[in-house]
Every structure is written in C-alpha cells, then in structure tokens.
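For anyone still unconvinced, we reproduce a single protein record, the chain in one-letter code, the fold tokenised, and leave readers to judge:
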Amino acid sequence: SLGHAAAIVDLSQHNVSITTGFAGGEVLLFGAVEDPADIVVVVEGPAEKQTVWRKSRVGGIWLNRTGESFAAPSFYHVASSRPLSEIPEALRRRYRMGDDQLRLEGEPPIPARAAFVAALVRLKRAQGLYGAEPGKVEFLGSRLFRTTLILPDNVPIGRYRIEVYEVHGERAEQTSLDLQIEKTGFEAGVFDLAQT
C-alpha cells in the first residue's frame, strides 16, 4: 500500500428489509481518506443466470432463435468522485469500474457474444438495476466523502458486495463492505412458500 492507509468506510445500515409496501430505498455510504484521492464505489448484487435471446423472422413470425447465458450481477451501480473516463483505464478494467467493464462468468472474449452482453446491460438499465451513469461521490472538505446508494422497488434480495476504491494516480486501495437485502413479514412468507 506504499504508506497509505485504506479509506475508512461504513454504511448507514447493513440490512434492508423489503416488506409488502416497499417502494425503493436509499443507503448512505460515508467515509474518510487520509490523503487526497479519488473515490470509486462499485455495488454488485448477487449473481444470477441471465439468458439473452436474439429474435429472427421465420415464416412471417418473430421467434427467439439464438440465446446466450451468462452469470451476471443482478444489480450493478457505480459512483465516483470524478468521471470514470478520468480514472486510468487499467484500473477501470482490473476492478470492473463501469458496466462496460463487466466480466460475465462463462463469457469467452469473442466478438460474437459482445452484442448479447450489450443487450443484457441495456435490459438491466431499463429495469433500473444497472446504472446508466455513475452516481456522484461528494467530498465534504478534503477528507470526508459520501454517496447515496439508490435501491429501486424491484431490487433483488441477497448479499450485495460493495467495493470502495481509493484511487491515487495509477493505483487503488480497496475496502469491502456487505449489504444484505431480505424480504420480511408477509412478503417473506409468500417468497418462502413459492420456493418450497
């Protein structure tokens, strides 16, 4: 770490309960850095198998003809203190900063699958589950920072991994947090019944 201590980071809450009337929510992420730095926050929900289909016209009818399956994050958002384009590309690629840097399990690096990955990202963005634009990390002075994680009403349940990167030029220090999103009350009972 070359003499720099990693950022001190925490959440306003580590558990979010989804009840029948859940209409979305917010979680505050806040922290402090020892030295001036850029901050990038990457939030990933639990991985889910996703299948993307390409439709083809057969006898005047559009049918799903070709599909690709990926293990992809169910939720993915990024927030940063400066535009991601100003963060070194090597860091963005290494730490998957931005949905254009997602590495989906089972994806070979061949151009034929790029269109399916792009379609999956577009679909997730339309559902509000992937952020089209990075959120903003705000500094309060030179050391304290904060950002608000917006959770839509259709947020998937499970354990979310939050990675906070303190960027110093061409290197980054990483701090990890967990956020648990779970159904409670009547909603949990219905979900458990449906699963069993």
User: Anything to note?
Assistant: The longest helix spans residues 111-126. The mean pLDDT is 83. The first strand starts at residue 8 and ends at 11. DSSP finds three helices and twelve strands in the chain.
